[in-house]
Each structure stands twice: as C-alpha cells, then as structure tokens.
Amino acid sequence: MSLINRFKNKNESFRMYYQEAELNTSLGEKLISWFPSAPRDYIVVFIGTDRSTGDALGPLAGSLFSSLNPKHLTIYGTLHQPVHATNLQDYLDKIKLKHRNPFIIAIDACLGKNTSIGQLIAGTGPISPGAALNKRLPDVGDIHLTGVVNVSGFMEYAVLQNTRLSIVMDMATKISELLVYIDQRLCYQHAQPAIVLPINKEKTM
C-alpha cells in the first residue's frame, strides 16, 4: 500500500479512471512507452494481502491476470501466494536470481484524495510499499501502476479494512485486462527475452 504523494517528483506519471473506455490503449501505450528498447525479462509484482480489503487490489489483480495465461509477463503475487511486507525482500531476491536482467512492473493499491478514488496511476521508477502505514520496505519496480482505493490522511489501517470490495474487484479486473493488452504487444525473438511489437495500424483503423 502506497501513498500517491510519496511518488518522487522527478519521475513521470500518467493517470486515468478505471472506467474510462480508452483505458487499455491510452494507459497501456503509456506503460509500454517506458519499456526498454533492448529485450528484457518482464516481471509483474502484485503487492498486497487478502487480509485487508483495500490492500487486496494487488493479489486480486494477480490472480485474475494469472487465470488469463499471459505469455510474456511473469507473475509474482496472487491471492494464494501473495507478496507482502514480510516476504517482499525474499521475492525480490528470488527474482534477481531467477531472471536475467529483469524489468519489474510493480502493482499496488494506494490511498489518495476523495476525488482520486478509482484512478489508476502509472509512473516511472519504483514505489514504496507500506508507506501509507509507515512501514519501511524495499522500493519495488522499474515502473509502477497503483490504484487509488480509498482516502488517505487519517487511520489508514482502518480505512483499508473498510474499503468497498466492489471497487477493489472492479479495479483489479481492469488492471488484469490492461496487462493482457500489454502482454499481447510483446513477442519473443528466438531465445531472447520479450520485445515490444509495433502497432499494426491497419488493424486499428
């Protein structure tokens, strides 16, 4: 769980409400524009726990995305195997050992202004999981995507516990669909890691 005002100012960010019709193409292409030009192992780390409704956004999205059998994005963090405060460093160490030159997309819930609830915020650079609850955890991600699930500012733990499951589920579904769009834009060349495919303009017209 992150606070959106903890993002570093030097990093680029882009936000949209999860109900917007052009979410996949607009937000998806923005995320892809931050991918490296050279092939990398693309890793998605879904952060959170199912013990808190608001903080379940990450593992919910991870489980939904996993059920869609992505080809080019490797998943860490689901409802059955969550990535959270007590095992985050272990998973980061595992990723470094298992994957060649990994490029990590961090997915997490966050708190923000009342008018920001429902926004998906993409940004370059890492996020600081646990910032909303004043926990010191490792920064995660070369880029990140966070979802504003509730209001920040007072008794954040209680706010997370009382977040509506409906909005968390809806946002998790949209995140999984967004990642499917990104996964379909990637391909393998021989034994190399994934690269981004150019958009076929004839198909999009």
Structure, described:
The chain has 205 residues and is α/β, with parallel strands linked by helices. The chain has six helices and nine strands, in the order ββαβαβαβββααββα. Strands 1, 2, 3, 4, 5, 6 and 7 form a seven-stranded mixed β-sheet that branches. Strands 8-9 form a two-stranded antiparallel sheet. α2 links the parallel β3 (41-46) and β4. The radius of gyration is 16 Å and the shape is globular. Residues 3-9 have low confidence and may be disordered.
Structural topology:
Blueprint: E1 2-3, E2 13-17, H1 23-33, E3 41-46, H2 57-66, E4 73-76, H3 88-98, E5 102-112, E6 119-124, E7 143-151, H4 156-161, H5 165-184, E8 186-188, E9 194-196, H6 201-204
Parallel strand pairs: 1-5, 3-4, 3-5, 5-7
Antiparallel strand pairs: 2-6, 6-7, 8-9
Helix pairs in contact: 1-5, 2-5
